[in-house]
């Protein structure tokens, strides 16, 4: 391939790698674990290549597993379409547990089918875990990045997928030996417990005596607790009774009467004091009122002349001759008739 074209292909491959990575197809969170004990392993590779022979040899050496081959063209024109058909066919196979997609080593141009975007996206959509084993350890394709697990070679892919039956048998033997030891220990412990229980059950009287001792102890504890409870309740009742007697109506009435006795005396004293003060004030006011009363003036020989309308006369000209005028004395009243009116102003003139 001319260098210029090869550079363009590498550049396009790098751009595709960034695009798929941005979509999350290579994210570690998408990786699924391989099945621990697969029964049917699907293989997508060339039927005539050495890859399937290596996978078959390693797989059958390690354990009992069923291999199902979906032959595909792995390089050259039409390789992409052939790989897509093989993937579709192997995924439809009933009971498939895991799929190995790969080929033997080759040049970079020989591996281009495994860098095709359609193949990468199809592997990302497979429903079971996928192991990619394309080329050798130094070769890394886009299918290696999108697969759930990458193997450096087809042989390593078989080792990853098929558990080693010999190792499993050895591990099972160790687990079996450990289980036997554990069971023997449990049997020894159980026998010891049986012997202990048998020794205790040798004479029922011992068991009855032990139970009677437990009952006696429980009875003593119950009596002590009951006595404490009764004493505590009696104390509470006594306290309540004392409080109730303190609030008995007789006690309340006696206490109230004792409180009212001094109050009654103080009230009578306060009333008497208030009456004396009120009487003194009233006498003083009566004395002042008598000093201002017209009747007191009349007692000194003066009289009050009342006009026809009953009001006191101040000026002589307020009445006319012939009108009747009342004269209020200190004791009694006179009805008089005006015969003549003398005005002080006329006399002065």
What does this structure look like?
With 349 residues, the protein is an alpha/beta fold. Among the domains are: 3-165, 3-Layer(aba) Sandwich (Rossmann fold), CATH 3.40.50; 297-348, no CATH class. Helix content is 57%, strand content 11%. It is built from 11 helices and 8 strands. The protein has helices spanning 3-22, 50-62, 79-91, 117-124, 142-146, 154-161, 165-200, 204-246, 249-292, 294-298, 344-348; strands at residues 40-45, 66-71, 98-103, 130-134, 149-150, 304-306, 324-328, 333-337. The strands form 2 sheets. It has a 5-stranded parallel sheet. A hairpin with a 4-residue loop joins β7 (324-328) and β8 (333-337). α2 (50-62) packs parallel to α6 and α3 packs parallel to α4. The model has no long low-confidence stretch (mean pLDDT 84).
Q: Which key phrases capture this entry?
A:
57% helix; Rossmann fold; alpha/beta; elongated; 3-stranded antiparallel beta sheet; 11 helices; 5-stranded parallel beta sheet; 349 residues; single chain; 11% strand
Write the layout of secondary structure elements.
Elements lengths: L2 H20 L17 E6 L4 H13 L3 E6 L7 H13 L6 E6 L13 H8 L5 E5 L7 H5 L2 E2 L3 H8 L3 H36 L3 H43 L2 H44 L1 H5 L5 E3 L17 E5 L4 E5 L6 H5 L1
Parallel strand pairs: 1-2, 1-3, 3-4, 4-5
Antiparallel strand pairs: 6-7, 7-8
Helix pairs in contact: 2-6, 3-4
Briefly summarize what is shown.
This protein has helices at 3-22, 50-62, 79-91, 117-124, 142-146, 154-161, 165-200, 204-246, 249-292, 294-298, 344-348; strands spanning 40-45, 66-71, 98-103, 130-134, 149-150, 304-306, 324-328, 333-337. It is an alpha/beta fold.
